[in-house]
Amino acid sequence: MTATIVLNADDYGLSPGVSRGILALIRQGRLSGTSCMTATPFWPEHAPWLAEVADRADVGLHLTLTDQTPAGPCPALAPNGRFGSVGALMARSLTGRLMGAATQADLKAEIDRQLDLFEAHAGRPPAHVDGHQHVHLLPGVRGLVLDAVARRYPRGSVYVRNCSEPLAAILARGVDRPKALIIATLARGLAPAAARRGIPTNHGFRGVYDFAPGRDFPGLMARFLVPARDGALIMVHPALADDVLAGLDPVVASRQVEQAYLAGDAFQDLLERDGVRLGRLLG
Fold first, then answer.
1. Model-level pTM?
2. Entry's Pfam families (predicted)?
3. How many other CB atoms are found less than 10 A from the CB of residue 131?
4. What residues pair up with 6 in beta bridges, in sequence order?
C-alpha cells in the first residue's frame, strides 16, 4: 500500500542557491512543496520561477518574524527595523508580551503584508502557510495566522502546517527528541483551532534535527518516513552553494548534503522501498 506524503523544502527566497536548489528538486519530482520567504530582497525575482512547477508542488508562505527585516513598519515588534531572534520572540510569546494592542497590530499587519507579497509576485494565493522557525505556532501569533487564512481565502483551500507529532512516534524515531517534543508541544491545539475555521492541516510532522555537521542525513530520512502515513509532512532545507547563503546561514553544509541526497538515486530507492509517494496535501 502506498502512502502519500508532502516533502516540503523551507526557505525558498532566502538566497539564490536556496531557490535554485529547491526548484531543481521540484522539477526532478523529489519535492512536493516549498515554503517561501516573501520579505526577502530575492522574492520578487525568484517568485516567477515557480510558475512552471505550480501544478507539481504546494507553494506557500513561510511567515518570517525572526532575524530578518520586516516587510513593513513594526514599531512595537521590531523597533530597530529588524526582527530579533527566535528565542527572544518565544520569550515574549510565552510570557504574554505579544498580546498588547500595539504588538498585535504589528503582527496582524506583517502577516497580511507577507501574504500580499506572496500573491503579488506569485500571482496566486498560497497553497499553505507555515512559519520560519515555527513561529506560526506561538501564542499571540497562531490565532492571527489562522484568522488571516480564514478571512482571505475560501474555506478549505489553504492549509496551515501542523507541527504536531505523536509522542510515541517521536520517541521511537529517536531523532533530536527534546527539540521535536518542544515543537510538538507548541503545536498542541492548532489542528482543532484550524478546523473550527474550516482550515485543513497536515497529519503528522517530521524532519526535525539539529543540522550538526556529519549527521547521517540518508539515515535520518529513512527514520522520518516511518510510519508511512497519508497526509504527513516532512520538512527539509536543501540548497545549492552560494556566497549570499554563506553570509546568512550557519547550516550551509547541511543544506548541501540534503540537496545532494534528495537529488540522488538512493532517495528514490528509499521511497520505493517504503511504499511512499510524494504528493500535494490538497491535490
1. 0.96
2. YdjC
3. 25
4. 233
Return the number of other C-beta atoms located less than 10 Å from residue 96's C-beta. Answer: 10
| SS3 (DSSP) at 147 | helix
pLDDT in tens, 242-281: 989 888 877 788 999 999 999 999 999 999 999 999 999 9
Ordered DSSP codes for 242-265: -HHHHHH-TTHHHHHHHHHHHHSH
Q: What is the pLDDT of residues 148-173, one digit of tens each?
A: 999 999 999 999 999 999 999 999 99
Chain centroid to Cα 9, Å, comes to 7
Cα dist from 241 to 33, 65, 122, 222, 238, whole Å:
21, 25, 24, 25, 10
- Check residue 225 and report its DSSP letter: T
CB 30 within 8 A of CB 14: no
The pLDDT mean for the chain works out to 96
Q: What CATH number does domain 3-278 carry, 3.40.50.300, 3.20.20.370, 3.40.50.10240, 3.40.50.10330?
A: 3.20.20.370
The grid coordinates listed for 62 are: 513561510
Task: List Cβ neighbours of 250 (8 Å cut-off, separation of 6 or more).
Answer: none
Q: How many CB atoms lie within 10 A of CB 272?
A: 11
Cα–Cα dist 163/44, whole Å: 28
